[in-house]
Design brief:
Layout (H helix, E strand, L loop, with lengths): L18 E5 L13 E3 L10 E8 L4 E5 L5 E7 L1 E5 L2 E5 L7 E4 L11 E2 L12 E6 L3 H4 L11 E8 L5
Parallel strand pairs: 5-9
Antiparallel strand pairs: 1-4, 2-3, 3-4, 5-11, 6-7, 8-9, 8-10, 10-11
Amino acid sequence: MTEQIHNDYEVSSEGAVRHWMVPYARLEDATPTPSNPAAVLSRTDGTQICGTILTVHAGDSMAMIDFTPSMTYYHYVRNVLTYAAAVEATWGAINIGDPIYYDRSATMPAGVYLSTSPLDNTGAANPLFGFAMPTDLTNSALFPLGGATASTQRSGVMQRGAGA
């Protein structure tokens, strides 16, 4: 068998890049916006594949989403840890490496989709989106982000993506 180089795949420093088109109707947020996090609907709470929206194609109601594992993007993250009676109950500082969830709670501030809570405000499991990560040395000095009171922080989030 002759050795040959196959050129029918993508390679990057992050490993194989995974960009897929997903219909708006299959997303937790059916009105996607570029640079926002996204979660694909699933039959089982907490198992959704998650990624970052790259572009939207209004004509065919499709969004191009980056599902590449370990890609790091800036996102807004709510520091809520738990809910009680459907409202935020406890909060905590966001540290490097903390799990970040796609929070489907109706009580999230507008434009914020991620939190540190593994459960939404109804008690259902939130899907794991990724982990809090600094984006450079200057950014790493800002951690921990937030504290014991409610806040929304801009943080680097290394997404779990597809195939993780």
